[in-house]
Amino acid sequence: MAKTFIITQKRSLIGCTKSQRATMEALGLRGRHKSVKLADNPANRGQVMKVQHLVEVKVEG
């Protein structure tokens, strides 16, 4: 089974750039304390690194 991430939004998007907001939307995060499960691949890793100050990441599998 491939590795996955569980990403939880921990901080608000107030004061963030448009690019960071778009990244959060692309990750599927739409509000505080919401979580999504994503595959561990270079594209998703890059997105998470861009908004790492807003999210909490747990590695699964």
3D architecture notes:
The chain is α+β, with helices and mostly antiparallel strands and 61 residues long. The protein has one domain (4-60): 2-Layer Sandwich (Ribosomal Protein L30, Chain: A). It is 31% helix and 28% strand. It contains two helices and three strands, in the order βαβαβ. It has helices spanning 18-27, 42-50; strands spanning 4-9, 35-39, 55-60. The protein has a three-stranded antiparallel beta sheet with strand order 2-1-3, with no helix packed on it. The longest helix is centred in the middle third of the chain and has 10 residues, at 18-27.
Which keywords apply here?
61 residues; alpha+beta; Ribosomal Protein L30, Chain: A; 3-stranded antiparallel sheet; 2 helices; 3 strands
Secondary structure layout:
Blueprint: E1 4-9, H1 18-27, E2 35-39, H2 42-50, E3 55-60
Helix pairs in contact: 1-2
Helical percentage: 25-40%
Instruction: Characterize the overall form.
Output: globular
Strand order, largest beta sheet: 2-1-3
The rounded Rg comes to 11 Å
Mean pLDDT score: 95
CATH class: Alpha Beta
- What fraction of residues sit in β-strands? 25-35%
Number of helices: 2
* Topology, number of strands: 3
> Structural class given helices, strands, pairing?
alpha+beta
User: Unreliable runs, pLDDT <50, ≥5 residues?
Assistant: none
Taking the sheet with the most strands, its summary is: 3 strands, antiparallel
CATH architecture: 2-Layer Sandwich
CATH-defined superfamily = Ribosomal protein L30/L7
What is the CA–CA distance across the termini?
Answer: 7 Å
- Helix-strand pattern, N to C? EHEHE
Kindly identify the CATH topology.
Ribosomal Protein L30, Chain: A
